[in-house]
Amino acid sequence: MTDTLTPELEAVVARAATAAPAFAATTPETRARALVAIADALEDAKTRLVTIAMRETGLTEARLTGEVTRTAVQLRLFADTLVDGGYLDARIDPADPDFALGVRPDIRRTHLPVGPVINFSASNFPFAFSVMGGDSAAILAAGCPLIVKAHSGHPELSDATAEVATAALTATGMPDGTFQLIHGREAGVAVLTDPRIKAGAFTGSIAVGRLLADIAASRPAPIPFYGELGSVNPVFITADAITERATEIASGFLTSVSGSAGQLCTKPGFVFVPAGTELPAAIQTAAGTSDLPEHRLLDPRIARSFDERRTTILNAPGVTAVLPGSIRFDDAGHGWATPTIVSVSLDAFRTSAADLVEEAFGPLSILVETPAGTDLAALMPEFYEGNLTGTLHLSTAEATGTTANTTELRALVAALSQQVGRVLFNGWSTGVAVTPAQQHGGPWPATTNDTSTSVGTAAISRFMRPVAYQNAPQAFLPAALQDTNPAGIPQAIAPAGESHTWGTRWH
Fold first, then answer.
1. 438 inside domain
2. Is residue 491 predicted with pLDDT exceeding 70?
3. What region does 265 belong to: left with phi over 0, alpha with psi -120 to 50, or beta?
4. Which of 223, 375, 433, 482 measures 20 to 30 Å from 501, CA to CA?
5. How far is 207 from 442, CA to CA, in rounded Å?
6. Where's the Aldehyde dehydrogenase domain (predicted)?
7. Is the per-residue pLDDT at 429 higher than 80?
8. What is the pLDDT of residues 130-153, one digit of tens each?
9. Are residues 97 and 178 in the same domain?
10. Which residues contact 156 (CB under 8 A, 6 or more apart)?
């Protein structure tokens, strides 16, 4: 037992450590069946789980029902990814006596599970980024025992989801200790510091994420920590796009800002538009014709924080309310909000940047009106470090890449590509497709590691580490590296003799 763990936590970590070699040794097909069993069980328990989630989070039945489906789809996607085996990145360099630098030994490289992982679940996605969400699915798919620190905003739901997942894992024969749930921030920190834990994952605020990332990095043996923290997701809309479809853009913008009470890491927080366009008026019109009822924020702490940010933004010099919005507090301390949209000139935005650039976690967004001739590509590094997404709305003609401003737009795309993980065109950043090519990550403070993603099949690689085998007998190689390749895993083979032709095509 370590000095930092209570007897109860020691038992949890010990079970995970004991399960690690047995779970890592399971076949991809075996783990795939376990993931699908969890997906099926979650959908079977959907009605009961959604009822609990509605009470604890204030999110709507439709939103939560869809989120259970998304969670099941994530699990099934990883199941198929496991069986395909491409995620192992198997590479084989056969022995080559005529290698350009001398005799080359037989070298084969693949990826192995890192070991037990702790995942700190999110408040705003009680299914998709919580107990059995995307991070958990990736961790289990990689073959790593999983310890989830439940979010304090939905403890009953976390326990209920854990019961469903545990039963499915047990029924499919997974080792005891493959999955466990703990409660409490102190417990989570204690487990994160234990030397048997080999990686961490997190979705939440910048402050807490930075604290946990620093703890992971300051351990005697530092471990990787994959945190998704904060993002304001800037949007750039051209004058021609507004002229062409102002009503459509305004309606989509309002839907994106108000969905789930704006409590999404991909909410468009800032929209850069040319000064003097009709977009503010179109937003007011769209709000007048749309059903935008007040929506409960996740918990009283988040509501109070949003109220403070909203007040600061509304009182900043140069800020004008396009939609003033509202927030009220009920007797239980819960906040109920309607969307707040404000506008500010670029000069005033620069003057009040200290009050405006920080993320407002809730239904609020800022229109920044830019004068003609503004270097849009320079605005990203001026105001922001990193974000999950960046969006451009172009006219039909601009989308062809043949208009007078094409060079400027290409520069903006290049600038966005340097500072976000996903660049969108003529859409809205809320709604992250669960698909193999998805990238959900970005430079700090969007994530703590901008080379990884928490959505899409590449998410598995966070919880695996590369190992090379030199001159290993076939009987001692992982199946993915064997010549017989029993599972048909994709193998990248560098044939003997090719080293003498490297670079010749470029003469």
1. no
2. yes
3. alpha
4. 482
5. 17
6. 8-277
7. yes
8. 999 999 999 999 999 999 999 999
9. yes
10. 52, 56
* Cβ atoms of 233 and 392 closer than 8 Å: no
**Which distant-in-sequence residues (6+ apart) come within 8 Å of 207 by Cβ?**
none
Q: Based on the number of CB atoms within 10 Å of its own CB, is 487 exposed (0-12), middle (13-18) or buried (19 or more)?
A: middle
Question: Tokens 């996740």 map to which residue?
Answer: 298
Quote the CA–CA distance of 352 and 219 in Å, as a whole number. 39
171: left (phi over 0), alpha (psi -120 to 50) or beta: alpha
Question: What is the rounded distance in angstroms from the CA atom of residue 313 to the CA atom of residue 10?
Answer: 46
Residue keyed to tokens 């997974």: 174
Task: Please check whether residues 110 and 88 belong to one and the same domain.
Answer: yes
Query: Which tens digit of pLDDT belongs to each residue from 241-259?
Result: 999 999 999 999 999 999 9
> Bridge-partner residues for 108, per DSSP?
92, 469
Residues 283, 193 within the same domain: no
Work out the angle at residue 134's Cα, subtended by the Cα atoms of residues 488 and 74, and round it to the nearest 5 degrees. Answer: 55
Domain count of the chain?
Answer: 2
Q: Does some domain include residue 1? A: no
Domain at 117, CATH number: 3.40.605.10
Q: Is 26 left (phi over 0), alpha (psi -120 to 50) or beta?
A: beta
Does the residue 370 lie in any domain? yes
Residue 2 has pLDDT above 80, yes or no: no
Half-sphere exposure of 35 (CA within 13 A, CB side): 32
Q: What is the CA radius of gyration of the chain?
A: 25
Residues 222 and 239 in one domain: no
SS3 341: strand
Same domain, 104 and 203: yes
DSSP one-letter string for 134-174? HHHHHHHHHT--EEEE--TTSHHHHHHHHHHHHHHHHHTTP
Round to whole Å and give the CA distance between 458 and 187: 29
208 burial (CB, 10 Å; 0-12 / 13-18 / 19+) is middle
Stretch 93-119: mean pLDDT:
97
Domain boundary among 410, 425, 440: 425
- 358-386 tens-digit pLDDT: 999 999 999 999 999 999 999 988 888 89
Q: Tell the residue number behind the tokens 């600061």, with chain if given.
A: 312
* Cis previous bond, 300, omega within 30: no
Residues 6+ apart with CB under 8 A from 248: none
**Range of the structural domain that residue 384 is part of:** 235-425
Residue 224 lies in a domain: yes
404 and 264 co-located in one domain:
yes
| C-beta separation of 119 from 76 below 8 A | no
- Residues 255/261/266/270 CA torsion (nearest 10 deg): 70
Q: How many residues does the chain have?
A: 507
With contact defined as beta carbons under 8 Å apart, do 454 and 432 qualify? Answer: no
Catalytic residues: 228, 265
Provide, for the chain, the percentages of residues in helix, strand and coil under a 3-state DSSP scheme, each rounded to the nearest 5: 45, 20, 35
